Hints:
This protein is mainly α. It has a domain at about 195-250. The chain has helices at about 1-155, 160-165, 170-175, 180-185, 190-250, 260, 295-310. The N and C termini lie far apart (about 195 Å). One of its GO terms (cellular component) is axonemal dynein complex.
Amino acid sequence: MVQRMILKLEMITKERERHMEKLWKEFQKVLNTYLRNTEEYRNEYSKLRDQDSNDTRHIQNHYVEVARLSDLIANLRLKLTTIRDEHEFNVKQLQKSKMELQERVRNVKQEMEIGLKMDEEKLKQLAVCSNGALKYLQNLLKRGNAILQIATFCKKFETENESLLPFVHSAVKRQMFEVDEDELKEPSTEFDVFKKETFGIAKKFENFWMRFNKARIDCACLQEEKQQLLEENERLKSQLKEYLITVNISNGGSLESNETLLAQRPSSMKVEKVVHIDLKLKAVRFSKNGQRRPVTCIEGNLSNAIRNDRLLEIKNKPAELYSVVEQS
């Protein structure tokens, strides 16, 4: 029984194996047929799958690139907005500066026009004033030359003391002619040169004004002495007149004859105005046009002495000479 079962099982097994082998062969055949029929599709599928993988990878890359570019666009938009705002602000500032500069240019033009007009007026005024100043300086030059001529002319009549001590005290004179050791040194800088020139001119002016003031004092003293001498002259003339009348009456003369004794002043005693003094002429008795020059005090004194001698026939005492110059 068991053997039957075994044999039957073996028979069934063999039968199933044959059936399985047949099915496998059919399967292999169908599979081969399928493979032969689908090989082209499978190759195309593989290509499409590879292409899909590539496309998927490209899409992912594109997504990343799109995200990056989106961020870049957002940043650029933000920068554009910022730059636009800055540009608008700068444009407004430039327009404001332009308006201010235009206003300043207009003001400068107006100031220049006003300044040019003022400069023209000042130039005209300067031309007029310069002409007046030139005439004034020319007049001063003429007066200075006349003063120098008169000073040179008067120097001939200075006494010995006046020549030795011209107008100022000896101590002042020594101070005028003293030379500072610093003045002998060569100036080293421009400031020293300027200081030397300035103080040199100031010192000359100071000495000039000292001499000028002393001369004015001497003139005042001489005027006072002249006034005293004039008063003394009038007094002596009146006394002389009374004396001559008394002498004439005592000699038996008439009053009418007394007038002839009081003769007019001689022409040599008349003082005439000298318009110009020519220093080149050696003779100082007459001026260039033949007119008589002013007489000196010595000539006048001598003329009075001769006249009085003829009238009174007596010897007069010599007149005393006074000097306002301080004796050293």
